[in-house]
Amino acid sequence: MASxxxxxxQTLKGVGRRRAELFxxxxxxSVGALLRLYPRAYEDLSRPFPVRTAPLGxxxxxxxxxxxxxxxxxxxxxxxxxxxxxxxGESTLELTFFNNRYVMNLLHPGEEYLFYGKVxxxxxxxxxxxxxxxxxxxxxxxLPVYRQTSGLSSRLIGNAVRxxxxxxxxxxxxxxxxxxxxxxTLSSLDFALxxxxxxxxxxxxxxxxxxxxxxxxxxxxxxLLRIGGRTRARSRFQLQSDRTGEFYxxxxxxxxEAQKRAVRESMADMLGGFPMNRLIQGDVGSGxxxxxxxxxxxxxxxxxxxxxxxxxxxLARQHARTLSALLSPTGxxxxxxxxxxxxxxxxxxxxxxxxxEIDLLVGTHALISDGVSFKRLGLVVTDEQHxxxxxxxxxxxxxxxxxHTLVMSATPIPRTLALIIYGDLDLSILDxxxxxxxxxxxxxxxxxxxxxxxxxxxxxxxxxxxxYIICPMIDESGSDMESVNSYAQRLKSKWLPDCRIxxxxxxxxxKEKEAVMNRFSAGEIDVLVSTTVVEVGVDVPNATVxxxxxxxxxxxxxxxxxxxxxxxxxxxxxxxxxSAARNEEALARLKILCSTxxxxxxxxxxxxxxxxxxxxxxxxxxxxxLKIADMTTNMESLRKAQETAQKIFRADPELSLPEHRGxxxxxxxxxxxxxx
Length: 676
Description:
The chain has 5 domains: 1-45 and 148-169, DNA polymerase, domain 1 (Orthogonal Bundle); 46-139, CATH 2.40.50.140; 171-230 and 635-676, no CATH class; 244-430, Rossmann fold, CATH 3.40.50.300; 440-596, P-loop containing nucleotide triphosphate hydrolases (Rossmann fold). It has 22 helices and 22 strands. 37% of the residues lie in helices and 18% in strands. Helix 7 (202-228) crosses helix 21, helix 7 (202-228) packs across helix 22 and helix 9 runs parallel beside helix 10 (288-301). It is an alpha/beta fold.
């Protein structure tokens, strides 16, 4: 099977250069990848209906013989109709095809076919419009339906898959050891691949799915465990003293019980004999930065260096300012490393870091670049972990010798999904907000009430409050949505002429973004029109209103993240979602957001609506692309695969035993485009 992933799709019989490009577009650049391009649905032809009893308006199979050769009729607009009739010995079925001249050669009078489509009826006749059809004598009981692209129909894909299946070796190597298959009552890979594409019957399809889903979950778990690199090797950086009490005296506020619990759990790890590997999960504004600061303080006071990696330059600078204000008075030396730092300053900072003259380095992914070396890196903190991925977390940890690792995420992740993605981490949850925080009220409105919305914004601006307005696009190319700049111009000329308006978007240079955010933070901008670059950014407690245009275009978790930019102070805040959407799913999403501010409940709903593949937006920051397994519906298989993966990993972490070499190859295949 592994060698088929190296065989270009163009070498397959019936696939030429042009068609090969279409297969690559579908994600099948090789013969092996084509075999893993599983059908999205199936046509059950095993129980065809007689014409008279076929359910109306429902897709079904009907068995009947063609009565006469199709006739051709040209109609307006350059369209051609092809019509014929089929008879099952009792009733007649009228058949109509649009612009499909091939039916003239494919449908032969007197021969029986299975017609698959919707049956409609009136008082005079029963009819099918453009059904699929197959010769009854050679039609398999279940037919696959593949995800298509223009120029590549499901039938053509199926034909290519048949050719690919003929290339499977006999006997075929199976990545799952025989004993494991027996324990889990799973079919062989050979059986599974053949029956996932062309099942002998529905029971065989079920068996094939169970096997492939379990295998995919198992390979995913083994890959995450290996990349996470969790070992039980003893720590070189065991803390000798807990300095938490000193740190709490530095704070200008009383930490919440949830913060204290998270610090306590983390300190217990760092005082123990093994490296800490912990995820701090907390909703927007729950105080994760203070938890990380407490751990950095204790680590540095125990003679170590610490590093904090953030996804954006704006957030990295904010962390550097916050931590400097808090920790510099205690003698802790803090450095900031970002991509925009001039080369001479980078060299100077790297030298100071290597010499141990910087205790805490804050920065973007520049922290994992070549040339950055620490003298005694004992603690690694990754903020907004889902934006980096496991491999980048591991790359930062590799700058030290098994340092303690703290991962922070302000994107609430359903506990099950968190355990999958961060299976090598212990979990602490910050489930309470600091005292004095007011809940943000959220309303979904239609565009026709926009005048009232802007009257509401003006009233708050007159009270010296500030407002965010979120636009989905930077420019208008290929889109009917307004750009940030044109939207801001309309605000100035029509809706908010007396307000000071600023703009922020991803195409601005880092220093320009920072200047705008600094002006907004200083109260020099009343209304900031922005794309989602403010999703993580500088805290502005005075911003109490957020208006989100085209709200239906965002996922629930992203809307919740955006909403978290307000409600940072002690004043009541309001989030207004403007949407012209009418489809039920979009309206349901907005209704959920209006009904709760619990990020974990929102994350659960978002996972149900969008599935794990899209949960984190860009796939390179979330999970590898799963082909068949679904974490929302295959929970029992997921649980079994997790247990099995942990058992295998404990016994053979390198997957080097002969019985695990096939799994090792599968792990490498699944993660090859994800860990770069």
